[in-house]
Each structure stands twice: as structure tokens, then as C-alpha cells.
Amino acid sequence: MASITAENQSQEDRSKRSLELALAAVRVAAEDRGRDIQLLDMRELTQIFDYFVIVTGSSRRQLHAISEDIDHALEDGMGDRRMGIEGYNESRWIVLDYGTVVIHIFDEETRDYYRLEDLWADAKVVDISRQLSEVNALD
Q1: What is the edge-to-edge ordering of all strands in the sheet holding 124-125?
Q2: Would the pTM count as exceeding 0.85?
């Protein structure tokens, strides 16, 4: 019985940490003027990761800035470690893999084409309005 409780606590701690990382990525993307930011709770759909952060940038330069700033915030600021990155050189769809959180940074055309929100339509959308309004208040 104690191992079940410990396992539940461990999953709860993991989920809490994942949400903290995802919300930090949302804030950074908003600070870098990313658009159409969404946070999807994937925990009921897959055991591989907990959250998707999806954001649109308007240029290669902006996509790079968002990805680099998210890396800086999550690695340097929060002590996490990125497990992988894909698409940085092509700069149409950059994927940052933090294990439990996967961040997708798209240009507009590529996001419209792949429509991850539709593909994962059963995922719960996390309310990020507070994070976005905090960033907007700084402007």
C-alpha cells in the first residue's frame, strides 16, 4: 500500500513540475511576441509526456529567439534539461523536447498545415489567460 501512495505522489510531483515548465514556456513565448499560444494537457491521452505548448512565430528570427529564450528559462532558470531539439535549422517547426513537456514553435503556414490542436482535439486546453495577461501588463 505504501508503494502505491509513493507512486501516486511521484506522479503528482511530476505533473506539478511539468505544468510549471509548460507555464514558463508559455510566458517566455508570450514575452517574445509569439501568437496563438496554446497549452494542451496530454496526461489522459498518452503516458509519454504531460503537456504540449504550441506557439506561432512570424519569422525565422522570431522562432529562433523563442526557442533559445525558452531553453534559457527552463535550463538556466529552472534547472531542467532539454532532451532534444528538431527543426531549428529549417525554422518552420521547431520542437523542444523536455521529456514531460514538448514545445512546438511553428511558422504560420506550417502550423496551419499540421493543425496539432485538431490532431489532439481530445486534449484538455489549459487556461493560460493569467500568464498572458501578466506578460501584457508588462508592456
Answers
A1: 84-86, 93-97, 101-107, 51-57, 35-41, 124-125
A2: yes
- Tell me how far apart the alpha carbons of residues 12 and 107 are, in angstroms, rounded to a whole number: 34
* CA triple 108-114-117, angle to 5 deg: 90
Range of the domain at 82: 2-128
What is the number of structural domains in the chain?
Answer: 1
The CATH number that applies at residue 85 is: 3.30.460.10
pLDDT of residue 50: 96
Q: What is the pLDDT of residues 81-93, one digit of tens each?
A: 999 999 999 989 9
